[in-house]
Design a protein that fits this description.
This protein is mostly helical and 179 residues long. The chain has helices at residues 29-35, 96-124, 129-142, 152-177, and strands at 17-19, 26-28, 65-67, 74-76. It is 42% helix and 7% strand. The longest helix is centred in the middle third of the chain and has 29 residues, at 96-124.
Length: 179
């Protein structure tokens, strides 16, 4: 007994069978007609896939347009950047107050990143490390909620700076007492 290569079940003696005219592969007649041709890859009688038509409106979404909360221009609903160069965190429309709060949060995160990088670099230098290290640790601790998640690397810089600063402080104290 052969197996139908479309549904992979046995072709029984009482089943209606269709053989491919090109490769002579046996199929259930219902499987052949449902697929619209041979199921063997590369066969000349293989079923031809139909491509769906190209959508008429590309780049639009539900509601089609939204108002930019920065410049109040009408833009496509799916855009994440306006012609005024305002960027949005998601495609849903935002009110001006929501946008201002989001921008303020993004600017605060950017400032925190810069401060932590500077404090970390200062905690590598031996002279400034005893002061910059603890400052980096304290700053990272105070801003841990803002720097959590995707910004965790900068939080780690603060903790690493604190560790380096503490290490330098211990070394300086050991050198000062003569050990």
């Amino acid at each position: 007994m052969a197996r139908c290569t479309i549904c992979y079940t046995l072709i029984r003696a009482n089943d209606e069978v269709h053989s491919c005219p090109s490769c002579q592969q046996s199929y259930h007649a219902a499987c052949w007609s449902e697929l619209g041709g041979c199921g063997t890859y590369g066969c000349q009688a293989a079923a031809v896939a139909e491509k769906p038509p190209v959508p008429v409106l590309v780049g639009t979404g539900w509601g089609d347009t939204k108002t930019c909360p920065a410049c109040h221009a009408e833009i496509a609903a799916s855009l994440l950047v306006c012609v005024c160069r305002a960027q949005f965190p998601y495609a849903d429309p935002m009110l001006p107050d929501e946008y201002a709060a989001w921008r303020a949060s993004e600017e605060a995160i950017a400032a925190s990143k810069k401060i932590l990088v500077v404090l970390f670099l200062l905690s590598i230098v031996g002279v400034t490390a005893p002061l910059a290290g603890p400052a980096a640790g304290f700053y990272a601790y105070r801003n841990r909620k803002r720097l959590a998640g995707a910004h965790g690397t900068f939080l780690a810089l603060g903790v690493g700076g604190a560790a380096l600063g503490s290490l330098y402080l211990v070394v300086i104290l050991l050198l000062a007492i003569g050990l």
